[in-house]
Amino acid sequence: MRIDNLQYCNWSEKIFRQMREGGVDAVHVTISYHENFRETVLNFEQWNRWFEQFPDLIMKGQWASDVDTARATGRTAIFFGFQNPSPIEDDIGLVEIVHTLGARFMQLTYNNQSLLATGCYEAEDPGITRMGKQVIKEMNRVGLVVDMSHSADRSTIEAAELSTRPIAITHANPHVWQPALRNKKDDVIRAVTENGGMFGFSLYPHHLKGKSNCTLQDFCEMIARTADRFGVAHLGLGSDLCQDQPDSIVEWMRVGRWSKEIDYGEGSAAAPGFPPMPQWFRDNRDFGNIEQGLSDVGMSKDEVAGIMGGNWYRFYAENFTPHA
Questions:
Q1: 160 with 117: CB under 8 angstroms?
Q2: What's the pLDDT score for residue 265?
């Protein structure tokens, strides 16, 4: 089983076919960065059209059982998520609405302070806000997973403690391995995993040791060391693959509507666009390289299977359904 728990590609038949060539059974795709509710609904509509156009390649995923259906029918199940709480605007009632539409993950922040929590680019981190506490409770109730991938340390630790269901960091790497601002310190990873949550390893070059020149061995050894520290059952992949996207998209991610100035995020004025992917992971056809790499650094067959998808599958089964 192969599950990638974060992609934001420029979707096309080519990419859908590559998913099948790579044996990818499920992908969590971002359908909102800074979009409001109505704009996010338009993105749901676009995916509905793709499901109609390519029914032999992709299907809508809502529950873990949909991964089983996708595997049995030779398709990839597509699960939806938001990298910002902007789709719920300032209305807690929209949490249940977006879950009904198919959303299964929602970040409480995207780099900046939000109505709910603090992003990792802010100088001060006062933690989860009053509204954030209420929204976490509502997300727990309906089965919308709390994602803290772009959140600051205190906010993430508080979210893990406040949430009655496990939370996720869907795409990041350990800060001790590569001290990028977006990577996570040990106390943050521990807070998430000790509460039953999941940590997804990112292949976005700014999060990698050596960036685009990171080796497969370095990446897989990092995963093995993280498994030793925090338990292999809490680890998976969240590649952050942004295949075929124009550089205008990374500008939208970083700037949205909140600033008139260009924000280069993890890039720079000299290299403002998407960085090149490492040559051993260019697209969905390369997941086999990671699977082999994990085996080569000494991980067992069961451990590799968990990281490649089994752990995310279990997490889906336990956390997408509403509480009674």
A1: no
A2: 83
Tell me how far apart the alpha carbons of residues 118 and 152 are, in angstroms, rounded to a whole number: 6
d(CA 148, CA 105): 10
Which residues of the chain carry a pLDDT beneath 70? none
- Tokens representing residue 60 in the block: 């809508």
- Please enumerate in sequence order all residues whose Cβ is within 8 A of that of 273, keeping only pairs 6 or more positions apart, or say none: 247, 250, 267
Using CB atoms within 10 Å of the CB of residue 188, give its burial: 0 to 12 exposed, 13 to 18 middle, 19+ buried. Answer: buried
Q: Which two tokens stand for residue 47?
A: 């995916």
The helix (H) or strand (E) run that includes residue 142 is helix 130-142
E strand or H helix that includes residue 141? helix 130-142
Rounded Cα distance, 56 and 17, in Å? 10
Q: Using only C-alpha atoms, what is the Rg of the chain?
A: 18
For the chain, the distance separating the N- and C-terminal CA atoms, rounded to the nearest angstrom, is: 30
Q: Residues with Cβ < 8 Å from 302, sequence gap 6 or more?
A: none
Question: What's the pLDDT score for residue 295?
Answer: 98
Q: Let me know the angle formed at the C-alpha of 62 by 75 and 117, rounded to the nearest 5 degrees.
A: 125
